[in-house]
Amino acid sequence: MIENAPASTTRRQTAWVCAPGVLKVPHLATFLADYEIRKLPSADVDVVIGWGMKPSANVGRKWAVKNNKPYVALEDGFLRSVGLGESGATSLSVVVDDLGIYYDATRPSRLEALIETAPQWCDGTMAARARALADRMVESRISKTNMGEPLDVFVLENRPRVLVVDQTYGDASIAYGLASEARFAEMLDAARAENPDAQIIVKRHPAVAAGRKQGCIPADKLSGTTLIDTDVRPAELLDAVDAVYVVTSALGFEALLRGKRVTCFGAPFYSGWGLTQDKVLTGRRGQPRTVEQVVAAAVIRYTRYVDPVTGQPCEAEAALERLISLRDRADRLSGHWSAVGFAPAKRPPVRRLLNSPKGTVRYFWRSSSALADARANNGKLIWWAGKENPIIRAAADAYDGPTVCMEDGFIRSRGLGSDFFGALSVALDDQGVYYDPRSRSRLETFIATNQLTPRQLERARCLREKVVGAGLSKYNIKGSALPDHWPGDKPILLVVGQVENDKSILTGCGDIRTNSGLVEAARADYPDHFLIYRNHPDVTSGNRPGLLDAHAMAEVDAVADDMDIIDLLNACDRLATLTSLSGFEALMRGKAVSVYGRPFYAGWGLTEDRMTFERRGRQITLDELMHAALIDYPVYVTPDGWPCEAEDLVNILIAARDTPLPAPPRGRIRRWWRGIKASLDRSPPPSY
C-alpha cells in the first residue's frame, strides 16, 4: 500500500481545476487519482482545486465560497525535482491540502493537523521509517530542487559559523508565515548579538544578485557578513554551519534533519513544536513533537509522489532514490558539451542521453568549430568513439579542457544501431574508451578502484539476476530456438564472431584478430568440445565484414547465426571470444569464458586469458564488475527520452520483448531513408 496514496472511495469527487496552468502539471491525473478532473465549473462540481494561495486561483476560491464548495490547495512537495518549476522541471511530488496550505500559518492546514495528531498514528515503526528517511536525505545531500554549485570552501572561516537565510521580497510564505520584510533585519541583528564570535553567513537568493528580484535584508545591513548570492548546494551550506536563522525558509526544516539549532522569525510549518527557537507564535501548536514525527507527517503522510519514469504512485523512499539518481545524473552531465562527428541520425537520441537541467549541447560538423566552442564556453569536447578520425583526435589533443568519448552501453536497445534503432544507453568516458586497452578507461578505473558498500553490491546482484532471468542482451533481438540434434555427450563450446574492423579488435588483439583465427585457436585449445559458431548480426545482415574463411569453417560443428543468443549462452559450457560483449554476458550467467583479446572484463580473475594485462590484476567479484559496467559507467534513457536507471531500462525491455520490431531497412536506399527520418526527430527531451 502506498502510504500517501489517495483514499479509495466508491465515487471519485468531481474537481474543477480552476487554473489552466495546473492542468499542465505532469502526472496530474495520477497525483489526483481520487478526483475526477474538470476544466470548467459546473453545478455537479464537488471541490475546487488550485495552486496554493496563488492569484491564479483567486477566481476559483471566490467561486468556491459563493457556491459553498471546499477549496483544495496543491503545492510542490518537499522532495520535488532537479531544478525549479519555473524552468519546467518535472515535480516528483505534490501536497494536497483540504484545510489550508502548509506555509499559511494564519489558519490550520492538513500538515499541521497531521503533526498535532502524530502521537495517535506515528508509532515506533513509522518513527523508525521517518528517521531512516531523514538520514538518507542528509547522507545523500538531497534538497527540494537540487540545483546549485559546490560551496567555495574559501568563504568559510575557522570559527563558529551561523547561517542567516534571506528570502525574495514579496514571497507569499512571509506574510502567510505571520511575518513581514522588516523581520529580516531584526533576524540579522539577533544573529549577530546572540553569536558575537561567529562568522555570519547570509544566504541570498541568486535572483537578487542578478537584479531580477529584491531581497528582504537591506543592503546596508550586510556589512561585516559573508554574503553568498550564488546558487550553492543547500546541503553543503547547512553542513558547514552551527546554527541557522530563518523567517519561513524551508532551509530551516533541512537544518533540523541535521540536528542544527534553528531560530525562526516567522511561523513555518516546522516551528511551534519545541524543535526551534521561535520569535513568532501561531496561537495554536505548542505541543512538543519529535523530528521524526514532523518528517513522518510532512514527507511521508502529507505528500503524494509519482515516479516520473513509470508514471505510477510511489512511496517517499522510492521518490527520494529517484531524485538522488536524477540529481547525480544532472551533475554528471552538467556544463557545456561541444559535440563533433555525430551523424544526423544519431543526434536526436544523443540529445536525449545528454539531457540535463545543468547542461547544454551543441553539434558541429567541423572539429575546429567544436574546439573553439568548447574553449569559449569552458566546456567538454565530445565525439562518438567509433567514429573518431585524425582530425577529431588532433582537436582533442589540442584542447586543455575535458574530452569525452561516447559509445553504446552494454544494454543498448531493441535492434541494431546500423539499422537506425536509437541507443537507450551510452558510456561516457573522460579517460579513454572501454574497448581500447592501450590506455586506462573510466570503466577500468571504476573496476580497479571502486570500494562498494553492501547496499551497492546487493543492487548489482539483483540487477544481474534480473537481466539473466529475463534473458536480455545488448541488442535484444529474438532468434530461433536451438535444435534438438546437438550431441549431449560433449561439452559445448560457443565461439562468438565479431565485426572484424571493430575498434575493440583493432586496439585490443594480438596475433589473433580475425574470426577465422579465433575459431582455429579455440578448436586447438578445446579439441573435444562441440564447437558452435555464431556470426555477429551486423555481419549476417550484410552491414559489416567478418565471415569465416573455408579452413576455419571446416572446424565448426554447427552454425547458429539465426538462433537466440541467450539460448546459446544458456546451453554452452564455455564461450570463446576475442573481445565480444558476449563474454561479459556469459560471465553474468556463470559460464566459463576464454578470452583471446583484451576486453574490459578480462584480467580481473573472472576469465581464462590468452593475453597479459599489465595494469590489471586486482581480483574482483562478478557483482563488482556488474556495478561498474552496468550502473557506474553508462547513462540510460527510456524510449520516451526520460532519464532512467539500468533497472528501469531492463523493466522496459522486458515489457516490450514480445512486441515485434519494425523490419530493418534492406538495401542502401532504404537504410539512407531510415537515417533521414531518424535525423528529423526534433522532439525535445523531457524536463527534469
Describe what this molecule looks like in 3D:
The chain has 688 residues and is α/β, with parallel strands linked by helices. The chain has four domains: 106 residues, Rossmann fold (3-Layer(aba) Sandwich); 163 residues, Rossmann fold; 141 residues, Rossmann fold; 180 residues, Rossmann fold, CATH 3.40.50. 33% of the residues lie in helices and 16% in strands. The strands form four sheets. The protein has a seven-stranded mixed β-sheet. Strand 12 and strand 13 form a beta hairpin. The relative contact order is 0.09. About 1% of the residues have low confidence.
Instruction: Give, in spatial order, the strands making up the sheet with the most strands.
Output: 2-1-3-4-5-12-13
Category from helices, strands and their pairing: alpha/beta
- Give the second-level CATH assignment, the architecture of the largest domain: 3-Layer(aba) Sandwich
Oligomeric organization of the protein chains? single chain
Rounded mean pLDDT score: 90
End-to-end Cα distance = 27 Å
Q: Determine Rg (CA atoms, Å).
A: 30 Å
Helical amount among residues, as a percent range?
Answer: 25-40%
Shape summary: elongated
DSSP summary: helix tally? 26
Strand fraction equals 15-25%
Beta-strand segment tally = 26
Count of all domains = 4
Main sheet specs: 7 strands, mixed
Uncertain stretches of 5 or more adjacent residues: 414-420
CATH class of the largest domain: Alpha Beta
**What is the CATH topology of the largest domain?**
Rossmann fold
